[in-house]
Amino acid sequence: MDVVLFLLSLLFEIPPRQLAGLGRTKMCEDLLWGYIPMEKEKQIDELLSRGVSEVIDREHLKKRLLSGEPLRVKFGIDPTSPHIHLGRSVPLLKLRDFQALGHTIVFIVGDFTGQIGDTSDKESERPMLSEETVEENMATYAEQAGKILDMARVEIHANSTWLSRLGFGEIGKEADAFSVAEFIARENIKKRLDAGKRVSLREMLYPLMQGHDSVAVSADVEIGGTDQRFNLLAGRKLQERLGKSSQDIVTTNLILGTDGRKMSSSWGNTINLTDAPNDMLGKVMSIPDELIENYFIHCTRVPMEEIDGIMKSESPRDAKLRLGREIVKIYHGEDASRAAEEYFVSTFSKREIPNDIREVKLIGEMSLLDFLVQEGFATSRGDARRKIEQGGVEVDGVKVLDRDFTLTNTGKSSIVKCGKKDFARIIF
């Protein structure tokens, strides 16, 4: 171990083997992220609290983290969309925090479970995806996750490796660990059953499959959103049933999308990690003001005390612009972040909008396609679809490329622009 790493070990009370695993290059990167200068226990406390809803078992996990014991930290994601959105960045950033402490990240791409479909957060049954669709969706997942994680130090697994080989005998033994009553007691499932909606047997098996992932990779910790709590506990229960050490659990808070609803690809309210810098910043600028602080906490690593200062001293617009810069910087770098800010200020903030812009009262929701036709911006839904796909439609200064985009009440007016001349202000 060289002298520099040895001195850093003494200064920050980090086990030498942990620093040696990082190396000098990685250490410099971590310094830029603001990890290493933090006193170790404070760093761990923030790891277990920032953006975190619940830790099971907190004291046990904190003790292991303080000991310097290398842990296997698991996170799984089903490729139900080709894009990883900012909502997924919350657990990914948490994984980055674990990685900075020297722990092994086990990244599971659910190519098998993605076909089955998890309906933990859905109000209706999720349709099964084809193998081809899943393969297309997952093609760039590692690359997208690499915008946050050091993928050279990440284990990547496709869960079809083990789940496709399970027989009825093994499935039956593992299924015995769970009761039907436990499954249907879940709030979302109970709501569907009370409404007379179908709940399939495959949905009941999904937590078992996710739990088996934890057994297969010998997970010490699993991270997931609050909607995943039951599935995360399933991994813990299966490990106990099979006589293995049970994983600790960290659930992260869910963030809302640009329309104030849960961020979801199916609702078209996402900020994707693959968005171009200008579009990414523009989408951030479109979020409701009341979400600014929440986004700072969950989607950036700006120090908590600095966030408090920003929220107290800056206007919502300036705070949101700072937020946008920080988010773009993570995924595209400092230069792209500055350029995106300059673009926004010069093209949107100073953009001339006609004085006689029409105002349209909107009650409830309306698809963007129908709105364009209704207001005469398009001659038909097909024409509207073409204009959207060609990048000719903007909502609040952000190009909309999703033909299924829905205009929703965000608590403020919105500007729809089609082409160079057609404008409408939506009033809710």
Give a description of the structure:
The chain is an alpha/beta fold and 428 residues long. The protein folds into 4 domains: 1-37, no CATH class; 52-252, Rossmann fold (3-Layer(aba) Sandwich), CATH 3.40.50; 275-351, Tyrosyl-Transfer RNA Synthetase, CATH 1.10.240.10; 353-428, Roll (Structural Genomics Hypothetical 15.5 Kd Protein In mrcA-pckA Intergenic Region, Chain A). 49% of the residues lie in helices and 13% in strands. It contains 21 helices and 13 strands. It has helices spanning 3-12, 16-33, 40-47, 58-67, 86-100, 113-116, 131-137, 141-145, 160-163, 168-175, 180-184, 187-194, 201-217, 229-241, 277-285, 292-299, 304-313, 316-332, 334-349, 368-374, 381-389, and strands at 52-56, 72-77, 104-109, 154-158, 221-225, 248-252, 358-361, 366-367, 393-395, 398-399, 406-407, 414-418, 422-427. α1 (3-12) packs across α2 (16-33), α15 (277-285) packs antiparallel against α18 (316-332) and α16 (292-299) packs parallel to α18 (316-332). The longest helix is centred in the N-terminal third of the chain and has 18 residues, at 16-33. The protein is globular, with a radius of gyration of 23 Å. Mean pLDDT is 85; it is low at 30-37.
| CATH class value of the largest domain | Alpha Beta
Give the fraction of residues assigned to helices.
Answer: 40-55%
End-to-end separation in angstroms reads 63 Å
CATH architecture of the largest domain: 3-Layer(aba) Sandwich
Q: By helix and strand content, what is the structural category?
A: alpha/beta
Uncertain ranges: 30-37
Structural Rg: 23 Å
How many distinct folded domains? 4
Could you give me the name of the CATH homologous superfamily of the largest domain? HUPs
Question: What would the CATH topology of the largest domain be?
Answer: Rossmann fold
Number of helices: 21
Strand order of the largest sheet: 1-6-5-2-3-4
Mean residue pLDDT:
85
Shape: globular
Number of strands: 13
Strand coverage percent:
5-15%
